[in-house]
Amino acid sequence: MGHFLEMRKISKRFNDNMVLSEVDFAADKAQVHAIIGENGAGKSTLMKILSGLFLPDSGEIWMDGEPISIQNPKQAQEHGIAMIYQEIRLFPDLNIAENVFMRREPLRTMRWPRLIDWDQAYRETEKLLQYLGLPLHARAIVKTLTIAQQKFVEMIKALSHDAKIIIMDEPTAALTEQEIELLFKVIKDVKKLGVSIIYISHRIEEIQQIADKVTVLRDGEVTQSALSSELDMTALIQAMVGRQLEDRYPKLKVKHGKEALRVEKLGFNGRIRNISLEVKKGEILGITGLSGSGRRTLAKVLFGIHGPYEGEIHMNGKAFKAMSPHIAKSHGLCYVTGITSEEGLIMNASISENIVLPNLDRVSHAGFLSTGRESEYARDLIDRLEISADEKEIVQSLSGGKQKKVILAKWLFASAKVLIMEEPTAGIDIASKLDIYNIMNELVLSGASIIMISSDLPEIMGMSDRIAVMYNGQIRKTFLKEEATQAGILYFASGGKDT
Amino acid sequence: MFAIERLGKIKEILLKQKRVDVYELSELFSVTEVTIRRDLDKLEQAGFLVKIYGGAVLNEESEPDALSPASENDAYLEQKRMIGKIAGQMIENGDAIYLSPGTTCLEIARNLKNKRVTVVTNDMAIGFALKDSAGIKVIVTGGDLMPSTSTLVGGFAQQALDGIFINKAFIGIKGAHMDAGYTVGSHEEVMVIHSVKKISNEVIVVADYSKFNTTGFARLGDLNMTKKVITNKQVPSDYKKLYFENAVKLYTTFELE
User: Fold this and answer.
1) Per-residue model confidence (pLDDT) at position B69
2) What percent of chain A has pLDDT over 90?
3) Which partner from A108, A253, A359, A417 sits 20 to 30 angstroms from A411, CA to CA?
4) Residue B123: DSSP 8-state
5) Would you call A375 and B30 a contact, using CB atoms and an 8 Å cutoff?
């Protein structure tokens, strides 16, 4: 018998990059079919094709035994395909029913004056809420709901559209354990309505709880497709990682010195728990984990953006029970973030203004800013980091690689001793990437320490001396560089335990 | 920019233009004229230049030290020093290393202080530079001395490499080029390096950035001939990309202190 939905030999390339190559995928009614794979494996692209956001270069989509055409999101919706994204897409100031019936409100009569039949809208919303056993009122304003509850509203919205296929992209990324349990119950109830659910995730242990079938993608190809009961975690990880890439990272061995930063039993808001770690002078400590593992929360707690926290942070022989960016900076701890954020860059200011910002004292005379000195320092750092730009250039006009270097320059100017670097090379060109790795070498050579937070596994394995793997707010395992393998890291990042 | 780098740049300019102007230099480096005059004083003491009114001229009489091939007025000396520093980091106590002839490897030799290693070289200048280093065992191959150099080549040089094993071999080159690959000055040098490759665990190319996009006379091998390369940050981006894509570890120098 044929499947309810079939995607046949779907191929897609972006420029020279083959993102999907002849991918076959099938889903059935009243089943949860999980798609897993590492970042860049092609999961999202495949689902964006199904929901009409991308057109495939070749391949066909069949539904109920007939070929269908999906040229845009509207056509996908007409075929009963709904996608629930990682980020919530609701109107926060409207109530549940208003969101559910947005732009297709039921009318009292088809004739003028076309009044909306709100009673019906509320009735239907309440009915769905009840069916799913959710203690929510149809008139509740969306922004007062938790993230998990907002996800349920999106599901109800999809159901009220008569969705036959609901695609869920990393639905558990921002949820707590109890919320995940409730979400799974709701998914099972929705499944009973005959809906086919496609569940994108890289949390392997969840898949065994919720999915009936699993398809594994790697580098745009299907490497495994089977009943989830037939595959254990090791088999799934094997299908995900494939061959180990040759190490190409210019890691320089540097003798480690005294302890630079130590953290004991750090906890924050349930989002990170019981974290203990230390980094020595000259050391690069890598921290990795899947999205939602708490790796970025940890960085923000260390730098004093999130707080108050449980536990202690030790720096320069002192124990801190509270942290703020100001205290952190004054002890040489800095946070090199993604590009646009409070600790990133001011986009419409010049390179030199951005660089001197964390340490204006060094370029001031009796309280007055000396632009001459500002430029001199900036030119020096631009030259040393090979940014190849004029110090007066506005940051916005620079390439991603150059912007990353300006952020680094800013912290070098502030004489950082411990650098927390978050996704240091994400989205930048290879030459700048290599420059950043070599700047990291030079930093540790000069006695600094680096905590590198990255989801790029080859990078973290190539550049770190030790690798801490996070899962669900905790450090599950710490590998020495020599012991780490991609499969090993993924095992612990997916919730695996030491046996 | 730091004083030491500025000195290097002033030397570069002097070697090219034979004379420098205090005002122009202060504009170029955005420092005061007083700072530039102080730099010129230092370089005069080192015998590199002679000060004149408003500037300085290259001291043409400053002769290279007979035993160090291009010696102190090497325009890229600072770059080579930094390469030497990184190479020094890679060398561990107990290693047997090979240093190929040339000033880049000479800088590596100068970074071996306090290490207990065995150094094998066919460059008399490198051997000579290590003569006072306690703890380092130095073996200079025999061989034919190439005219006006300190490089030893030929059958005797190759024989000396027979039956020994090297942990890390550092190879200096004349040119690195996308199409031509690595090149050195003569076929005789290629022969010695090929013998070294056979007895070495790890081979590392060392080349300051001026070597890229140039070629020497004799071809040594492709750019992915070795798994590690040490050079400077100024190396063109397309080479950085090529090395990364071919799984060659590219170490570049960034002077942060």
Assistant:
1) 45
2) 43
3) A253
4) B
5) yes
A19, A184 contact by CB (below 8 A)? no
Q: Do A250 and B247 touch (CB under 8 A)?
A: no
What is the distance between the alpha carbons of residues A351 and A365, in angstroms, rounded to a whole number?
21
pTM of the model: 0.73
Contacts of A135 (CB under 8 A, 6+ apart): none
Q: Is the ipTM of this complex over 0.90?
A: no
Tokens of A21: 């190559």
Instruction: Break chain B into its structural domains and give their ranges.
Output: 3-58, 77-253
Tell how far CA A209 is from the center of its chain. Answer: 22
Residue B114: is its pLDDT beyond 70?
yes
Q: Does domain B3-58 have CATH number 1.10.10?
A: yes
Q: Give the residue-averaged pLDDT of B119-127.
A: 96
Residue B34's H or E segment, with its range, is helix B33-45
- Show which of residues 66-105 on chain B sit within 8 Å of chain A, judged by CB atoms: 86, 89-90
pLDDT at res. B178: 95
Say yes or no: B31 contacts chain A, CB-CB below 8 A.
Answer: yes
Residue (of A420, A125, A398) closest to A279 by Cα position:
A420
Query: What percentage of chain B reaches a pLDDT higher than 70?
Result: 93
Measured CA to CA, the distance from residue A454 to residue A425 in angstroms comes to 9
- Of the candidates A159, A166, A37, which has an alpha carbon nearest to the alpha carbon of residue A96? A159
Tokens of B70: 């291009």
**Which residues are registered as beta bridge partners of B51?**
B56
Residues whose CB falls within 8 Å of the CB of residue B115, separated by 6 or more in sequence, listed in order? B88, B91, B92, B93, B135, B136
CATH architecture of A259-493: 3-Layer(aba) Sandwich (3.40)
| Confidence class for position B62, pLDDT limits 50, 70, 90 | low
Option in A248, A251, A446 nearest B257 (CB): A446
Residues 6+ apart with CB under 8 A from B179: none
B29 vs B257, higher pLDDT:
B29
Q: Specify the residue for token string 């600072």.
A: B78
Boundaries of CATH 3.40.50.300 in chain A?
A: 5-241, 259-493
Spatial neighbors of A83 by CB under 8 A, at least 6 apart, are A47, A50, A51, A76, A166, A167, A169
Chain A residues lying within 8 Å of B31, measured CB to CB: 376
- Chain B contact set for A412 (CB, 8 A): 256
Provide the pLDDT for residue B66.
41
Residue-wise pLDDT tens digits, A157-192: 998 888 999 999 888 877 777 888 889 999 999 999
Chain B environment of A439 (Cβ under 8 Å): 254, 256
Residues of chain B contacting residue A247, judged by C-beta atoms under 8 Å apart:
247, 249
- Coil, strand or helix at B118: strand
User: What pLDDT, on a 0 to 100 scale, did the predictor assign at position A339?
Assistant: 56
Query: What is the Cα–Cα distance from A12 to A14, expressed in whole angstroms?
Result: 7
Distances (CA, A) of A231 to A71, A217, A226, A499, B81: 35, 15, 7, 19, 56
The rounded distance, in Å, linking the Cα atoms of A406 and A398 is 10
Q: Chain A contact for B165, CB < 8 A?
A: no
> What kind of architecture, by CATH, is found in domain A5-241?
3-Layer(aba) Sandwich (3.40)
Could you check whether B3-58 and B77-253 share the same CATH topology? Answer: no
Its CATH architecture, for the domain B77-253, is 3-Layer(aba) Sandwich (3.40)
